[in-house]
Amino acid sequence: MRFRDRLHLILGFSAGAVIAVAFFDLLPESLELGGNFYSQTFIASMVAVGFFVYMLLDRFISLHQCQQAECGNPHHGIAKGRIGAGTLSIHSLIDGMAIGFAFQVSAVVGAIVAIAVLAHDFSDGINTVGLVLANKGNKKQAFRWLITDAVAPFAGVLLTLFIRMPEPILGIILAVFCGFFLYIGASDFLPESHHSHPTKLTTFMTILGVLVIYAAIRLASL
Questions:
Q1: Contact indicator for 24, 217 with CB cutoff of 8 Å
Q2: d(Cα 20, Cα 69) in Å, to the nearest integer?
Q3: Rounded to an integer, what distance in angstroms lies between the CA atom of residue 34 and that of residue 26?
Q4: Of the ranges 42-51, 63-72, 165-174, 175-184, which is most confident?
Q5: Which residue has the higher pLDDT, 63 or 50?
Q6: Is the pLDDT of residue 173 over 70?
Q7: Average pLDDT, stretch 145-160?
Q8: Residue 8 near residue 15, CB atoms below 8 Å
Q9: How much is the pLDDT for 45?
C-alpha cells in the first residue's frame, strides 16, 4: 500500500518475466520431455488448455466479486471476498506444485519457475488483500488471508515430494503451466501495469523482465 505509486513498474517487470518463462523455459522443456511421446500439435493444445482453464478460474473469481451497491445483504460482500481470496490461495497452491514438478525436471528449471511464481504470487497477495478489503472485510481478515496465500505455495511444493511424475506426464504438466503463465502475464500483469500510468517506462520494465529471464535461462544452460 505504501509503494502503490511504483507498483506499475514492479508489475511491468513481472509481466515480462512470467511471459519469458513461458516462452523460453516451460515451452521448450515440455517439447523436450513430451516430444518422444506426443506430437507438437498435442503439446501446443495442452498450452491452450492451460491458458483457457486459468481464464475460466480467473473469471470465476471475477464473478464472485461483489460491489457494495449490488449487495443487499451486508454479509454477502464479506462472503464474496472470502470466496475470491480462497480461490487465489488455491491458485498459489497450484503455483507451488508447479515449482515442485519443475524441480523434478532439473534444478535449473525449478529455480527459474520459482522466480516466476514469486513474481506472480506478489500480485496474488495484492489481489487477495484488495478482494477482502473491497468486500467489507477488515485489515485483520485481509492479513489472515494474505498469510494463507503465502503459505499455500509451500504446501504445493510439499505435495510434490510425495508425487513422482514420469517424463510424459511432466511434459504435459509443463505445457499446461506454460498456458497458465501466458494468461497471467498477458491478462493480469500487463493491463495492471499500464493502468492509469504512462506506458513508456512500464514497457521498458516489461522488456527488461523478458531480457533478465532470457539471460538467466541462457546462462543456466551453459
A1: yes
A2: 40
A3: 12
A4: 42-51
A5: 50
A6: yes
A7: 88
A8: no
A9: 93
Contacts of 215 (CB under 8 A, 6+ apart): none
Predicted pLDDT at 164: 79
Grid cell at residue 32 = 523436450
Query: C-alpha grid cell for residue 179?
Result: 498456458
- Dihedral, CA atoms, 183, 58, 4, 140, nearest 10 degrees? -150
Print the SS3 string covering 149-163: HHHHHHHHHHHHCCC
Instruction: Give me the residue label for grid cell 492479513.
Output: 143
Give the pLDDT confidence of 10-25 residue by residue, as tens digits. Answer: 777 777 877 888 888 8
Percentage helix, strand, coil, to 5, in the chain? 85, 0, 15
In whole angstroms, what is the distance from residue 99 CA to residue 16 CA? 19
Residue recorded with cell 527459474:
112
Distance CA 155, CA 222 (A): 32
